[in-house]
Structure formats: structure tokens, C-alpha cells
């Protein structure tokens, strides 16, 4: 008797909902039909921190929860490709009984009569269908150094909207973790997030895309439509999204001669230093590595190259000067006093100032000052310093 062949499915609940994104990993997926489903007993969360300094989607098992997504029919080669893509996740089997068609979608419009999954579901044939879901090995909520980035959100919404607006609404409303408070400490492997409403745990990176499997042109062209959808269904969290460019830290962190081991380690460290005001020294090596790793992003690459050259030159100059953000302006030794005065009169919510103390070869901030008023606008600071002849 011949053994029955098994059709494998992957349950896509994040970026894999988007045909454009999943086809980057498995090109044949662009031509395969994905089946919209709801999985009972699974909850989608912002909980997987990546080595690119962002937080991605994860799921956790919860009896009362439900999670909409798509079933992707995959062959052995594609399954291996998705395993490689989803490093840091475990591939876990789902029970066919817990997976069903999405009740609010029209049957005739979204489901084929010969759909392998639906036929197996109808016959309760568990021997010919195997459904997999990728579950994070380690879960942590979004944080300033690992924020939610808009290009990743856009990619998921693109996939959701290709199904229906109601499907996109369901994704937005049922996903937990748009703010870390939605994820209790016991739900994470570790709890190290003390993010407040003032800290940037959701950033708009459309001008300097962080997510590598997104489509920046599509994101920018659909920005108003997507933002309206998010604002409608997540108004409180959306109001705290920062519009500052995510990679502005390349101008915000100043030179310190420490070399970080890897690009992956450097990015979260730099992001944490910029957004939270922590004392972190980011060396020239970071900018060189950033340039090497951002060749596909011409705007970022150009900034990296420019910054590397400027910092190389700066390192040979007198160490009695202090460098300030954005315009690579050079200030005199009384600059900290003037900046403290500026902090007390300007409380715009964006990105904090960092000063370089060359005598100690480190980046420093006034912690007590930054704790109460840690955000000022780069443009305002630089204009203020220019107007007062500090620069």
C-alpha cells in the first residue's frame, strides 16, 4: 500500500501574510493561493526582537485567543527556506481542529472549492495535512532599542488589505503589544522593558527603511491610507508613534574609540543610546559597518560614508572641543551649560541630545536633566546654537 503524501502548510501571521514579502524567500509563493484562516488558541504579539534592532511578530498559546492569518501551501524546499528565514523561531505543529475558515469573509470570494485544507478539514483528514506555525524561542516586548518599525507594519497590512479591510482591522485590534503594557511581565521570557509613553517604541522609518523585505515605495505611496487605518483602530498607541527618522542616530551618536564586535550588536546599542539617553560609546567602526551593511539603501549609505569621513577627521583634531548632533557642529567648552539652559525651555518630543566628552573618551549625558526633559528637536537645537554664536 502506497503511503499517503502529506501537504505541508505554514500559518503566516505577520509578514508572511504579504505575498510580496514571502515571495522574496520562496519565489514560487507569488503564484500560490494562500488560504485565510483563523487559529483558535493562538494570540499574536509584538514579541520577537531581531538583530536589526526592531521587534517583529510572534505568537503565544492562549486558550481564549484567536489569530487570523493565512495558510501557505509549501513543498519541502520552501519549508526549508522559511525555516532559514525564521531563525530564532521554533516550527511547531498546529492541530487541524483548531484551524478554520475566517467567519467574516465571504466563502465564494476567498475560498476555492478544491482547497486542500478545506477538503481535509471537512473530512477531518489529519493524515494528509500538516500545519506549522513559527513560535519565538525568546520573547521580549518592544522597547526603545527594539521598536516596532512602520515599514514592517506596512508589509503586514499590505497582505491583510489584499484579503479585506476587515481582515486588516482584525490584525490591528487583536495583536497585543503595540505598547509593552499590553504584555504582562510573566508573558515574556525576560522583563526588561520600562518604556514610558514618552519613549519611542513605535517609529516611522518610511524615509529610511529598516525592514529588509518591505517595499518602501509602496509604503510611502499608501502612507495616508495606512496611517488612517492604524489611527482609527489603535488611536492611543498611534499617537505615540514618533515621526523622526529611525536611523537619525548616525548623526546623534558621537565618536568614541570603542569597537563593537558585530553590526548586529551595534545597531540595538546605538538605537538605545539615541532614544533613551543611556551612556553608550559608539565607535567609528560602527559607521563603517553600517555603510557596508546598507549598500542597498543609498540614502543611508551616503550618510554613513559622510559620517565616517567626518569622524575620521574629527579624531585628529583638538580634543578640547565638543561635537553636537545633526550638522556636525563644533562647540566650545561652555556648550553644556548653554544646552542645559536650552533643555529647560524646550520640551519638544523627539530625540535626545548627546555630547562627546573627549577627555574621558565616552559619550555622556546629564541623567537627572534627561530624565525629566530628555527630548529636543535637532533642528531647534542647531538653530539655537547658531543664533547664539555657539557653533
Automatic annotation (TrEMBL):
InterPro entries: AIG2-like_dom (IPR009288), GGCT-like (IPR013024), GGCT-like_sf (IPR036568), NAD(P)-bd_dom_sf (IPR036291). Pfam families: GGACT. This is Gamma-glutamylcyclotransferase AIG2-like domain-containing protein. Residues 189-200 have a biased composition (Acidic residues). It comes from the Eukaryota. CDD domains: GGCT_like (cd06661). Residues 178-200 are annotated as: Disordered. Residues 10-138 form the Gamma-glutamylcyclotransferase AIG2-like domain.
Amino acid at each position: 500500500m502506497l503511503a499517503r503524501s502529506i501537504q505541508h502548510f505554514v500559518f503566516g501571521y505577520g509578514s508572511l501574510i504579504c505575498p510580496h514579502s514571502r515571495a522574496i524567500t520562496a519565489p514560487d509563493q507569488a503564484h500560490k493561493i494562500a488560504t485565510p484562516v483563523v487559529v483558535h488558541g493562538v494570540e499574536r504579539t509584538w514579541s520577537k526582537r531581531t538583530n536589526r534592532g526592531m521587534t517583529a511578530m510572534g505568537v503565544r498559546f492562549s486558550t481564549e485567543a484567536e489569530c487570523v492569518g493565512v495558510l501557505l501551501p509549501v513543498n519541502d524546499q520552501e519549508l526549508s527556506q522559511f525555516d532559514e528565514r525564521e531563525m530564532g523561531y521554533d516550527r511547531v505543529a498546529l492541530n487541524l481542529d483548531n484551524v478554520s475558515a475566517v467567519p467574516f469573509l465571504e466563502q465564494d470570494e476567498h475560498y476555492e472549492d478544491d482547497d486542500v485544507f478545506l477538503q481535509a478539514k471537512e473530512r477531518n483528514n489529519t493524515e494528509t495535512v500538516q500545519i506549522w506555525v513559527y513560535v519565538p524561542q525568546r520573547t521580549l516586548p518592544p522597547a526603545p532599542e527594539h521598536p516596532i518599525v512602520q515599514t514592517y507594519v506596512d508589509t503586514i497590512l499590505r497582505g491583510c488589505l489584499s484579503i479585506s479591510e476587515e481582515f486588516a482591522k482584525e490584525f490591528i485590534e487583536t495583536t497585543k503589544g503595540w505598547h509593552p503594557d499590553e504584555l504582562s511581565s510573566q508573558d515574556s521570557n525576560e522583563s526588561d522593558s520600562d518604556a514610558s509613553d514618552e519613549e519611542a517604541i513605535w517609529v516611522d522609518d518610511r524615509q529610511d527603511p529598516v525592514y529588509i523585505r518591505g517595499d518602501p515605495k509602496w509604503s510611502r505611496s499608501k502612507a495616508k491610507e495606512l496611517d488612517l487605518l492604524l489611527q482609527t483602530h489603535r488611536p492611543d498607541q498611534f499617537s505615540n508613534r514618533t515621526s523622526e527618522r529611525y536611523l537619525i542616530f548616525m548623526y546623534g551618536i558621537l565618536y568614541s574609540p570603542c569597537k563593537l564586535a558585530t553590526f548586529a550588536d551595534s545597531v540595538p546599542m546605538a538605537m538605545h543610546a539615541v532614544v533613551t539617553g543611556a551612556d553608550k560609546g559608539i565607535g567609528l567602526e560602527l559607521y563603517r559597518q553600517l555603510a557596508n551593511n546598507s549598500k542597498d539603501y543609498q540614502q543611508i549609505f551616503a550618510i554613513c560614508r559622510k559620517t565616517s569621513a567626518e569622524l575620521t577627521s574629527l579624531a585628529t583634531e583638538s580634543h578640547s572641543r565638543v561635537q553636537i548632533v545633526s550638522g556636525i557642529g563644533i562647540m566650545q567648552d561652555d556648550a553644556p551649560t548653554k544646552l542645559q539652559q536650552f533643555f529647560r525651555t524646550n520640551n519638544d518630543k523627539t530625540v535626545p541630545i548627546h555630547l562627546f566628552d573627549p577627555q574621558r573618551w565616552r559619550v555622556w549625558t546629564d541623567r537627572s536633566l534627561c530624565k525629566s526633559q530628555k527630548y529636543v528637536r535637532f533642528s531647534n537645537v542647531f538653530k539655537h546654537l547658531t543664533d547664539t554664536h555657539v557653533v
